[in-house]
């Protein structure tokens, strides 16, 4: 049984601050505790098991803040009227997506600010300098990544190692890679690979994808990957496409799916 499991959250588009995943993490632990109680585990044993699960967050949106703020100053110099109030929240999302595409494709300069910044944060998490209350540092290379929206694209690029200078080391073991509301099929199709022959790296156990039927951005993933058995889970979040896309962070069905993966990893 693992005595150390990092649950690493990567947010999607929009402005995100620290603790954006705190509510989902607490819900995951609550569900896991209920399941372990139902299985007959003692309260002390459950506490010991779940104390082994430590939450970390990756923030990347700060790399797009200056560009986004300058755009909004130019596009909305005054308080927007009715239609502007609808479009203004969407503009930063599109900027972040296009900035990442530009950043990812700029091979000549070697800048890759977003992916490099994500890599720096992962290196800090696995350096044992930022492990917080991790009870067993020597087991600190076991993790589950939970990535939402554009964050899932960034995580996908990172763990697949498309940029060798900014790639997840194979010494890190991922029992599960979990995506929520993921637009990865849109990105790989735009790159010319709607039918992907990729396989999972040897350090990744399984890929679990969570999507909502009304999500305007998230997609099922299995049809696009011939050689990866992806477990697509359908959950119902909100009614409108944008609300449905952001509601995974507060969705009980999503937390149940992630709790399953956490308990499987701890048992492993």
Enumerate the spans where pLDDT stays under 50 for 5 or more consecutive residues.
Answer: 128-135
Write down the CATH class: Alpha Beta
Determine the number of helices (DSSP H or I, runs of at least 4 residues): 10
Q: What's the shape?
A: globular
Question: What is the H-and-E element order?
Answer: EHHEHHHHEHEHEEHH
List the helices and strands and how they pair.
Elements: E1 5-10, H1 22-38, H2 43-50, E2 53-58, H3 65-75, H4 82-87, H5 90-105, H6 113-125, E3 142-148, H7 150-160, E4 173-180, H8 184-190, E5 207-211, E6 230-234, H9 241-246, H10 252-267
Parallel strand pairs: 1-2, 1-3, 3-4, 4-5, 5-6
Helix pairs in contact: 1-2, 1-10
Keywords:
268 residues; globular
Describe what you observe in this structure.
- The protein is α/β, with parallel strands linked by helices and 268 residues long.
- It has a single domain, classed as Rossmann fold, CATH 3.40.50.
- Helix content is 41%, strand content 14%.
- The protein contains 10 helices and 6 strands.
- It has helices at residues 22-38, 43-50, 65-75, 82-87, 90-105, 113-125, 150-160, 184-190, 241-246, 252-267; strands at 5-10, 53-58, 142-148, 173-180, 207-211, 230-234.
- The chain has a 6-stranded parallel beta sheet with strand order 2-1-3-4-5-6, sandwiched between helices.
- The relative contact order is 0.16.
- Mean pLDDT is 87; it is low at 128-135.
